[in-house]
Structures are given as structure tokens and as C-alpha cells.
């Protein structure tokens, strides 16, 4: 039906944006679901496959290897084949991986299936925000990026529920034989939904124009913006590509180097402050305090709930108090919590609720700060012309740091002990505080172009942060 009236266009545009956000949300949900599902399964798998500590780490972190590969490939593949087709491939990988992780009889079969799923996550973690940014009207863009984090934590929360429900459906022997298979298998459901929904969303108009297909892009832009604005958009997008000659080398020029340090630095810090030691191994940590299997899964649900709740608080605060204030308060509070948790383990004071309470405050502090803020800053800190490549580099680094933490946590725990392990993460949280204080600029309320001009003024102004950064 032909749209002639403005209010009808507005309705179509809202429906359209909602559909796009739902697709992105499912991508984030799968990210959360597939990364955290292993937390409930690992205890059973350890016994089923008779795993040593290194293998336990590998069971968790093999997925992350896939994520690094997926993030690395996402930019190149989606430039060549389009955002939509690559996202469809990612959805298929999710489904194969969920079924593949549920049925293997050998540990290596399981590892291969998880790496395949990781490639899917690596792709969606980079492409979903990118696709959103390319397709959404400017006024919804920022919120959509942070909403992605809400979808991730919803996925994690959901996983914890599913895990508890499945493990509660039988005894320990059944758990070792079968429960973990169902836990992974359930992931196929959101995978199929994601795949189905992707067929209803259009290709990114930005990508179509880049391919020299403005005629295909125009009807999509019409649906988003209405007639007048759509034509202007085509011209603007074409122009932006004319300027878009950014090469990776530019990232190392004096001004942009700071953007790179901020983006990559925060990506690494988000991980080495230990959040995924808690997200992936929470039930194991609670078991170490003396809780039984089911009690530890219930406590894990609390972790998921707090993570979810405080991410909503962050969405509300991020454009009010700003990114920097959230990072400062969050990292300081994380450092204190990790110190206390370490002391509790060191002094053997783990029988009461102390560890649980401080893990919850730690997770809440992450959820209002490093969780959403790092993904938001990563998507806004780099100039238009190199945003795609630079964001992919930062995402890859984030996954690599995640790999190091999730692989090293079990052996670290058994060799250095929980106290030292948590203190190590605590010292990284302290580093995050100083890093943010000295180096991270406030980007709240600034247009992307204003943020961009920040780097060029740094290039000119030698008395600014540049010398401090060079000294790092
Ligand atoms: C991180 C994930 C983490 C999640 C926890 C995300 O921002 O990138 O690694 O598992 O937050 O909420």
C-alpha cells in the first residue's frame, strides 16, 4: 500500500525501528545465553569427561576463541556480502553449535561445536550494533547500543534460570549424563527465532549505497525517514563514503592514538577486572564457599537478576550523569568488593552471606559502569571514516582479554587460591579507575563529530593529554 500521509509514515517508521531493535536484541540475547550457559553445565561436564583444571578452562574459553575469529572476520565479510547475509550465517552457526554442543560423546566434539558458536557470537557482537547504527534514525542510535547490553544480560539471566530448571529436573547422576546436554540444546530455540526474524529485516541502506545500489537503498530509507529526508540521506551517505578513506595506519597518528588507547584500553579493562570469572563460573565460586549444587545455582540467578536490574539503571543514567562518572564510581566500587571477597577467602570467612553480598555489589557496580559504557564508548569514540575497522579491533581485543581471563581462572584459583585471584582482579579495577580519571574523555551529549574534533584538537595542543599518554 502506498503511503501518502505523514502520520502513516511515522507509524511505519516506528514499527520498522521496533523490528530492527528486536532483531538486534535477539543477537545480544544469544550472545548472553551462549556465553553464560556453560556456567551451569561445567560442573557436570567436569565429571562426565573427567576434566582437569586446564580442560575446564578450555571448555569455557573455547567459545571465546570462536568469538575472536568471528569479530575479526565480521568487518571484512559484511563489507563484501552485506550485513544481513552475514548475520543469517551467524544465526545458522548458533543453531549448529547449540545442537552440536548437546550431542557429543567426546570432549573434542564439544569443543569444536563451541568454537562454531563463538564465531556466531563474535559476528553478532560486532555487527548487531553496527547494523543498528546504520539503519536507525539518529535520535534512537545511542539508546540502541546500550539496549544491546540489556539484551546480553537478559540472555545471561535467562540462561541461569534455564540451567536451574534443567538441573532441578533430575538427580546428580542424570545431571552428569544428560542435564548439560539440554542446557546447550535449548540455545537452538532463540537461534531459530533469530534466523526467522532476520528474513523480515532489510539490508543496511548504507551498505547498499556503498555497493553502488542507491535505488535499492531508497525504499528502505523511505520507510525509515519519509520522502524528503530519505533523498537527503542518500546524498549524505554517498558524501560520507567519499570522505571514508580511513586506513588502520591513521589510528596510530598522535591524535587518534588516544582514541585507540581509550577504546582498546577500556575493552581490555572490562574483561581483566574479572566479570566473566563470575558470569561463567558463578556456581563454582558459590560451591567453593560451601553451597550445594542447587543452592549455588539459585545464588547464580541472583547474580543474573542484579546484573539485569542495574543495567536498566545504567540505561537511565548514561546520558544524565555521563559515561565517565559511571566508570569512576563503578570501578572504585568493584575494587573495594574484590578486596573484601579476597579477604573473606583469605580468612576462611566464607560460610555466611558475605561473599554472596559482595559479589552482588561487584556485579551491580559492573552493570552500571564497565558493562554498558565500554560498548557505548567503543561505538562512538572513533571517527566516521574508520569506525568500522577500529571498532572491530577493539571488539577483537575485548574477546582476546575475555579468553585470557576465562582460560586462566580455574588454574589460577587452584594454584594461587581465590584470595590472590580476586585481589588480582581488584588491582585491575583500581587501574581502571585511574585510567578513566586521567585518559577517558566525557562524551555525553556530544555529537560524533564533536567527539572526532576532540582528537584533532589534541593533535594540535601539545600541552593536553598527549604527553601524559606518551609517557604510558
Ligand atoms: C561483556 C561480557 C559480559 C557481560 C556481563 C558485557 O558487556 O562484554 O563479556 O559477560 O557484559 O553482563
Automatic annotation (TrEMBL):
Transmembrane segments: 56-77, 86-104, 110-132, 144-167, 179-201, 258-282, 297-318, 325-345, 351-378, 390-410, 422-440
Keywords of the record: Cell membrane, Membrane, Sugar transport, Transmembrane, Transmembrane helix, Transport
PROSITE patterns recorded: MFS (PS50850), SUGAR_TRANSPORT_1 (PS00216), SUGAR_TRANSPORT_2 (PS00217)
Gene3D superfamilies in the cross-refs: MFS general substrate transporter like domains
Membrane topology: Multi-pass membrane protein
Record's protein name: SP family arabinose:H+ symporter-like MFS transporter
MF terms (GO), sorted A to Z: transmembrane transporter activity
Amino acid at each position: 500500500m502506498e503511503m501518502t500521509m505523514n502520520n502513516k509514515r511515522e507509524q511505519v517508521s516506528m514499527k520498522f525501528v521496533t523490528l530492527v531493535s528486536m532483531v538486534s536484541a535477539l543477537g545480544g540475547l544469544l550472545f548472553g545465553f551462549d556465553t553464560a550457559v556453560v556456567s551451569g553445565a561445567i560442573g557436570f561436564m567436569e565429571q562426565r569427561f573427567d576434566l582437569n583444571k586446564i580442560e575446564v578452562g578450555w571448555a569455557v574459553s573455547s567459545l571465546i576463541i570462536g568469538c575472536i575469529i568471528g569479530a575479526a572476520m565480521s568487518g571484512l565479510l559484511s563489507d563484501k556480502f552485506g550485513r544481513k547475509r552475514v548475520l543469517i550465517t551467524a544465526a545458522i552457526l548458533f543453531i549448529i553449535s547449540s545442537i552440536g554442543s548437546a550431542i557429543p560423546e567426546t570432549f573434542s566434539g564439544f569443543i569444536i561445536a563451541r568454537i562454531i558458536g563463538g564465531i556466531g557470537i563474535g559476528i553478532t557482537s560486532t555487527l548487531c550494533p553496527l547494523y543498528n547504527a546504520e539503519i536507525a534514525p539518529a535520535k534512537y542510535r545511542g539508546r540502541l547500543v546500550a539496549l544491546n547490553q540489556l539484551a546480553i544480560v537478559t540472555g545471561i539471566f535467562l540462561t541461569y534460570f534455564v540451567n536451574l530448571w534443567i538441573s532441578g529436573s533430575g538427580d546428580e547422576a542424570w545431571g552428569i549424563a544428560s542435564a548439560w546436554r539440554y542446557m546447550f540444546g535449548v540455545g537452538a530455540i532463540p537461534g531459530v527465532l533469530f534466523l526467522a526474524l532476520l528474513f523480515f529485516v532489510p539490508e543496511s541502506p548504507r551498505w547498499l549505497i556503498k555497493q553502488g545500489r542507491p535505488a535499492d537503498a531508497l525504499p528502505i530509507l523511505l520507510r525509515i525517514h519519509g520522502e524528503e529526508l530519505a533523498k537527503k540521506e542518500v546524498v549524505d551517505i554517498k558524501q560520507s563514503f567519499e570522505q571514508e578513506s580511513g586506513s588502520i595506519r591513521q589510528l596510530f597518528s598522535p591524535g587518534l592514538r588516544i582514541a585507540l588507547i581509550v577504546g582498546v584500553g577500556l575493552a581490555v579493562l572490562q574483561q581483566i577486572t574479572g566479570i566473566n570469572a563470575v558470569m561463567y563460573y558463578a556456581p563454582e565460586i558459590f560451591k567453593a564457599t560451601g553451597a550445594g549444587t542447587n543452592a549455588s545455582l539459585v545464588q547464580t540467578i541472583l547474580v543474573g537478576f542484579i546484573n539485569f536490574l542495574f543495567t536498566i539503571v545504567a540505561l537511565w543514567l548514561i546520558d544524565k550523569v555521563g559515561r565517565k562518572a559511571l566508570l569512576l564510581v563503578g570501578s572504585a566500587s568493584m575494587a573495594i568488593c574484590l578486596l573484601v571477597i579476597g579477604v573473606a577467602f583469605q580468612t576462611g570467612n566464607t560460610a555466611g552471606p558475605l561473599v554472596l553480598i559482595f559479589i552482588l555489589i561487584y556485579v551491580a557496580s559492573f552493570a552500571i559502569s564497565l558493562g554498558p559504557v565500554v560498548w557505548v564508548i567503543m561505538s562512538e569514540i572513533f571517527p566516521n571514516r574508520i569506525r568500522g575497522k577500529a571498532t572491530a579491533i577493539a571488539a577483537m581485543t575485548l574477546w582476546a582479554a575475555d579468553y585470557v581471563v576465562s582460560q586462566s581462572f580455574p588454574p589460577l584459583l587452584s594454584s594461587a587460591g581465590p584470595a590472590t585471584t580476586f585481589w588480582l582482579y581488584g588491582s585491575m579495577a583500581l587501574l581502571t579507575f585511574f585510567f578513566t580519571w586521567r585518559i577517558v574523555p566525557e562524551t555525553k551529549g556530544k555529537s560524533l563529530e564533536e567527539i572526532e574534533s576532540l582528537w584533532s584538537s589534541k593533535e594540535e595542543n601539545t600541552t593536553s593529554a598527549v604527553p601524559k599518554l606518551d609517557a604510558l
